[in-house]
Amino acid sequence: MTDSSEPGGAYDPATEGAETAFSDKMSYGDYLGLSRILSAQSPLSDAPDELLFIIQHQTSELWMKLMLHELHGARRAIGADRLPEAMKLLARVGRIMEQLNSAWDVLRTMTPSDYTRFRDALGVSSGFQSLQYRLIEFALGNRNRAMIKPHEHDAEGVALLRDELEQPSLYQVVLSFARRSGFEIDRAFTETPAGEPHREVPQIMALWRRVYEDPSAHWGLYEVGEKLVDLEDYFRRWRFNHVTTVERVIGFKRGTGGTGGVSYLKRMLEVELFPELWHVRTEL
User: Do the Cβ atoms of 138 and 69 come closer than 8 Å?
Assistant: First the structure.
């Protein structure tokens, strides 16, 4: 019989002290709840690519859950003047957005013929109805109360959306930090939670111009401003990848949720989350 510790022998992890008995201990699968996660895919057709479609959207929702967690943490940190902590969290949000963007590369391997085989099984369900995506948009400041309507069947979801609307957006929290740092900003822009998308404000444009003309004198604001630009840059790429993937797979058909499909998504490409941070570059 060959000793498993000898070269060429069958490896036995127990010889190195690895745990191999889990009848009374928590295992890897137990900790991660893998039995629940891996049994959460229930294709409604016999189309092979439906599993890809489900998993791509489920994993995106998991990343969005983490993204919300980090955005809320960053908002709290900025509100408490803990800028280094906020920078770390916002950098992590950027890496999460890279994961979300990469996911489109996998979905684009699905051809129109592949998708047609199971599209009818989706009914009127659509990514347009993603609660977490809506919460992310609201947290970032793209707020539209009409977008609560697709969630009215979900009382808990509506409560989360309304709670978010009662809080200042991430950008408003940054502007509050600027006011605490000595910049003059009307309190209406910082203390009243935004109820609609932010529009460019001359006073705020002047603030960012001062920051960008002398970064060393306003390093905290300069750094957080660039992190917000990074975030929106990734977000724009996410939207662009979305519209490109949809056009590649279904052309200009209407979306399953009733939107105009590509036409609706292209309109979303025009949304600016932090307009002053983009437009100030023209003035420098």
Answer: no
Task: Calculate the CA 228 to chain-centre distance.
Answer: 13
How many domains is the chain built from?
A: 1
Q: Scan for tokens 């499909």, then name that residue.
A: 261
More confident residue, 233 or 252: 233
Task: Indicate the SS3 state at residue 136.
Answer: helix
Range 76-101 average pLDDT: 96
Query: What is the rounded distance in angstroms from the CA atom of residue 263 to the CA atom of residue 266?
Result: 5
3-state SS of 167-199 is CCCHHHHHHHHHHHCCCCCCHHHCCCCCCCCCC
Q: How far apart are CA 274 and CA 230, in angstroms?
A: 11
The whole model's pTM is what?
0.89
Written as one letter, the residue type at 76 is R
Look up tokens 């979801």; give the residue: 157
Question: Which one, of 74, 83, 279, lies nearest residue 180 by Cα?
Answer: 83
The greatest distance separating any two alpha carbons of the chain, rounded to the nearest whole angstrom, comes to 82
Residue 217 lies in a domain: yes
Kindly list the distances between the CA atom of residue 49 and the CA atoms of 94, 104, 110, 198, in Å, as whole numbers in the listed order: 29, 14, 7, 40
CA 176/CA 248 separation, integer angstroms: 43
**Residue 52 structural domain:** 46-249+260-283
